[in-house]
Design a protein that fits this description.
By secondary structure, the protein is mainly α. The protein folds into two domains: about 1-60, DNA Binding (I), subunit A (Orthogonal Bundle); about 60-98. It contains four helices and no strands. α1 packs across α2.
Length: about 100
């Protein structure tokens, strides 16, 4: 997990037109190409971050799939709010033009 989190922003910056699936596939391929030594380094960092999160109470008591679902729902809510605000601004714009 640490590897993907650390490298995702760089990949997104280099390939802004890629979908999240394309980014994930690319990162998966890069992970497979890493030496076991480098993988162990990222695994250790991930475990240390997880332990720290548990220590300060940030650990999620749900699976990765549940977290992914929550993130998807959050993204949909943000889109809905942005659309609603856009529609409201359009309405206000029409009122100001009158």
């Amino acid at each position: 997990m640490h590897f993907a989190v650390a490298h995702r922003p760089k990949v997104r910056a280099r390939h802004p037109d890629w979908t999240m699936s394309e980014v994930a596939k690319f990162l998966g391929k890069k992970w497979c190409e890493l030496s076991e030594e480098r993988k162990d380094k990222h695994r250790a960092m991930s475990m240390a971050e997880k332990a720290n999160d548990e220590k300060i109470g940030l650990a999620f008591p749900c699976s990765g799939a549940s977290i992914g679902l929550l993130m998807s729902i959050g993204a949909m809510l943000v889109k809905c709010l942005l659309f609603a605000n856009f529609q409201r601004l359009r309405q206000l714009g029409h009122l100001l033009e009158e």
